[in-house]
Write a structure and sequence with these properties.
Chain lengths: 259, 358
């Protein structure tokens, strides 16, 4: 069932908030190096799905298989440790810190281990920050600048660069360009293309149809907490996807799930 | 593969012109400005210099006595301010430090007394003869332990009950003051041992203050503890998502602040040769004021020990300047109040300007 190059698979992943069934029996699969978009209306369960596979929340039911092994994440750090990096909708950056500080937040490089008073290795962190920024072709005018002094696009780039710093096996981006201008969006999309060339797996959550068709290999559509379609980009078109999102159409193999 | 150019990769550079003017420089300029004002007023109103030595027989440029008074005056509250700075940077506030000083001073002093004064039994003996003539390490350890406990309680309340730091430490402020009064039913405790006297003797308060300031400056700048303190004050959710154990870290921050209040209690009671239940009243506000004047943002994330030390010096200069100009102490307090408000307004203004973009 699980082929050797499947990086992440979920089986019957379910999340209930009290009586609200936010996510119901999601079977999802992504291969190494593949870029998959998750689409759906607001409240369709996209963000809930992401919260389960990144350890922010714990699923009510279901299984997560990462790199061939069944995993349960107690917190986002555990997901990160196995190689799932997430760029959250809320950026999760500390405004008063600079770029390397943010990239290494919570996993600082130290020169001398002494519990909480371990001595920071600023030089190594800056070096690795530059390597990561180069890898993603992120352009940030001044590494020493605090996040507070950066534009929305630059902030997003820092958040994305964080995933590249740690050689993640799977990157998840939750609407990375929702708040950005045209140029900044183009910049972020370029970074995503760079990641594709480098063979990084990516789950992209987006409402932007053009962007999705530009960037990904496969589109998975969520509706009312369920997966209702799994479409290869070449075999579909934007109108088709909209039909699935709005409920005008449901994938044949998902008929009973959506009923 | 990193390029050989350490200052940039592609379009990415360290643009030094874009680097921000450190906030501490503003505080330093304010300090110089205030000294200048007193210097000017001194010549106009008193016919003498404020900080410089103008007498003919002197060998130094500065009026050393006044400098010494300024630094001595602020060093004890300054020790508290080092801890308060860390608490504020982490996004909290500590209102309990003045009361913790009072309680820790009372308790420590009761272990630092001599048994006999001029051949008679010590009339203020708080705990009986068994606690008299103990080695100096005992009262020091007791004061630090009390500060540690107060800090752990503060930190745990803030971290694990979800009540605002303002309320948690307000509770400790009232409780610790109560402990200070209850310890001897309000009687002062006097006649410390020679060893205990030595701790706060002469310029010792200044030496202790400066040593701790340097130590915690390095800790905040160069350790994981410092980075996480800034991160939590800057964006607590981001810190949590990054795997920082926010609750545990807050307990540590408040504990360090509590222990620094303990240190201040030792120095203060040693310097005064006595401990009273009313010791340290309002110190917490002075310490917060020093931090705020020094550019520590009350909304968290921003500030430094250097700033707080400069803020403390501004504080000392103003108090000393008013005395120098023979103005009533009432004016001192009024001006102090005004300066604190001005410093916070300035911080708000700076933040808004930053939010508008670079």
């Amino acid at each position: 069932m699980t082929s050797s190059n499947t990086i992440l698979e979920t089986v019957g992943l379910t999340k209930h908030y009290g009586g609200v069934h936010a996510l119901e029996g999601a079977d999802f699969k992504i291969h190494a190096g593949e870029h998959v978009a998750i689409m759906g209306d607001n409240g369709a369960g996209k963000s809930t799905f992401v919260r389960q596979i990144t350890g922010v929340e714990r699923p009510t039911r279901g299984q997560i298989i990462f790199n061939g092994a069944s995993v349960t994440f107690e917190n986002p750090m555990e997901a990160r440790e196995v190689g799932i990096e997430t760029v959250f909708q809320s950026l999760a950056l500390a405004d008063e810190l600079d770029v390397p500080d943010n990239l290494f937040l919570g996993r600082e490089l130290v020169r001398f281990r002494l519990g909480p008073f371990s001595i920071l290795d600023y030089k190594a962190m800056r070096q690795r920050t530059m390597e990561a920024l180069e890898k993603t072709a992120v352009k940030i005018p001044n590494l020493k600048n605090t996040i507070r002094n950066m534009s929305g696009g630059q902030r997003q780039c820092v958040a994305i660069a964080r995933t590249a710093t740690f050689h993640s096996k799977l990157t998840i981006m939750d609407e990375p360009t929702a708040a950005l201008g045209v140029q900044e969006t183009a910049q972020v999309e370029n970074i995503i293309r760079t990641l594709k060339q480098q063979g990084e797996s990516l789950i992209l959550i987006s409402h932007n149809m053009r962007q999705v068709f530009d960037l990904v290999d496969r589109i998975v559509v969520f509706r009312r907490g369920r997966i209702v379609a799994d479409l290869r980009k070449e075999e579909t078109d934007p109108q088709d996807v909209v039909a699935y999102i709005t409920g005008a159409k449901t994938g044949a193999e998902f008929q009973d799930a959506a009923a | 593969m990193a390029t050989s150019n350490l200052h940039g990769v592609g379009d990415l550079t360290f643009d030094s012109s874009n680097r921000r003017w450190p906030n501490e420089m503003n505080v330093l300029l304010a300090l110089i400005l205030i000294i200048g004002i007193f210097e000017l007023l001194g010549h106009l109103m008193m016919g003498q210099s404020f900080l410089f030595d103008t007498s003919d027989r002197s060998t130094s440029i500065f009026n050393e006595q006044r400098l010494r008074i300024i630094i001595l005056q602020v060093s004890i509250v300054g020790i508290i301010a080092i801890g308060v700075t860390q608490v504020i940077i982490s996004g909290g506030i500590d209102l309990s430090s003045g009361s913790v000083v009072g309680a820790a001073a009372m308790i420590a002093m009761s272990f630092a007394q001599v048994a006999e004064v001029n051949g008679n039994a010590n009339p203020t003996l708080a705990l009986g003869p068994w606690a008299a003539d103990l080695p100096v390490l005992v009262p020091i350890a007791v004061a630090l332990l009390f500060g540690l406990l107060a800090g752990i309680i503060n930190g745990s309340l803030v971290a694990y009950t979800g009540i605002p730091p303002f309320i948690a430490t307000l509770g400790m402020m009232v409780t610790a003051r109560g402990i200070a009064k209850w310890w001897t039913a309000g009687r002062p405790i006097s006649f410390p041992t020679d060893g205990y006297r030595a701790v706060g003797d002469g310029l010792m308060p200044v030496i202790i203050f400066v040593t701790l300031a340097v130590l915690f400056h390095l800790v905040l700048r160069h350790t994981v503890y410092g980075k996480h303190t800034h991160a939590i004050g800057s964006n607590e959710d981001a810190a949590r998502m990054s795997g920082i154990k926010v609750g545990r870290h807050k307990v540590l921050v408040y504990t360090i602040a509590g222990m620094l209040a303990g240190v201040a209690a030792i120095v203060l009671s040693s310097k005064n040769l006595t401990a009273q239940a009313g010791m340290g009243v309002m110190y917490e506000l002075d310490a917060i004021a020093m931090a705020v004047i020094g550019g520590v943002s009350l909304s968290g994330g921003r500030g430094s020990i250097i700033g707080t030390v400069l803020g403390a010096l501004i504080f000392g200069v103003i108090i000393s300047g008013f005395t120098f100009l023979r103005l009533d102490a009432y004016y001192q307090e009024m001006v102090k109040g005004g300066i604190i408000v001005a410093a916070v307004v300035l911080d708000q203004w700076r933040q808004r300007r930053a939010a508008w973009g670079p």
